[in-house]
Amino acid sequence: MTEPSENTTASAGEPFAPQRGGRGASVWNHKQWWEQPGMPFQEEPGRKDNVCLWLIILLGVYSMALLPFRAVLITMPYVYATLAGSRTAVVMIGALAAPPTENPWWPLGLILATVSICKFDWVYFWAGKLWGRGLIEMVAGRSPRSRRNAERAEEIARRHGTLAMAITFLPVPLPASVIYAALAAAGMSWRRFLILDVLFGFVLQSIYMYLGYRIGEPAVKVVKVYADYAWYVVIAIIVFMVVSAMWRNRRQPRNT
């Protein structure tokens, strides 16, 4: 009599259990998408989790789409300040307010730049409320350097609180998203976060605008000369990005 095969289907009512190491094992033991490495979730995400995750993804797409055009946007400081809250744009608005140009619209530029530099911070704070340290793990990724920076930012946030939030508005290499998430996980209220966020943004942008005012006409002249070549710089950046992406794809080993 022939012995039953190892792969014979189980009797009725019993689930199919593939042998360890068999073809079906990878499917049987396959993790859900939200359990994959780099995901911030501790449990199956709900509607709020999905919305927040998509917002973070869209912010990344927005930043990447804006990147090659920053070179030409500097010649349009009010637009640049609105889209990116750029410190360079704020300096230019301040320079335009100085004699002999004396552009009277600098208060509008300051408001737009303040709102713009703060406009996405709440997303990362919300992520910290939802996932706690999960966002920090997602930002850190697999890079040892990114992980060190994220852990340092988290430590600063937990030790210094409000001061840590002020630091995010300075040109220092600390991931602001991690600090906002850590502050949220530590229990900072929405009201306090939003008030401090706008306040610190306004103070920083005011400093940069005053710096531009003190520089004045020389900065305006430099940007006017640069404007004649700005689109060439943009084209060069786009070409570099495309070539770099193609080169990386060619260097990746192909699956056989």
Describe the structure.
The structure is a single chain. α4 packs antiparallel against α5, α4 (77-84) packs parallel to α6 and α7 crosses α11. By secondary structure, the chain is mainly α. The chain has helices at 25-28, 47-66, 70-73, 77-84, 87-97, 106-118, 121-131, 134-140, 144-160, 162-167, 176-185, 190-215, 217-227, 230-251. Residues 1-29 have low confidence and may be disordered. The longest helix has 26 residues, at 190-215. The protein has one domain (47-244).
Brief description of this entry?
The chain has helices at residues 25-28, 47-66, 70-73, 77-84, 87-97, 106-118, 121-131, 134-140, 144-160, 162-167, 176-185, 190-215, 217-227, 230-251. It is mainly alpha-helical and 256 residues long. The protein has one domain (47-244).
Beta content comes to under 5%
Q: Kindly name the structural category.
A: mainly alpha
The figure for the number of domains is: 1
Instruction: Give me the Rg, rounded.
Output: 25 Å
- Residue stretches low in confidence (pLDDT < 50, at least 5 long) are 1-29
Order of helices and strands: HHHHHHHHHHHHHH
Give the % helix: 55-70%
Tally the helices: what do you get? 14
Mean pLDDT: 79
Major sheet, described briefly?
none
N/C terminus separation? 42 Å
Shape: globular
Give the total of beta strands: 0
Biased composition (Polar residues): 1-11
Region (Disordered): 1-24
InterPro entries: DedA-like (IPR032818), VTT_dom (IPR032816)
Pfam families: VTT_dom
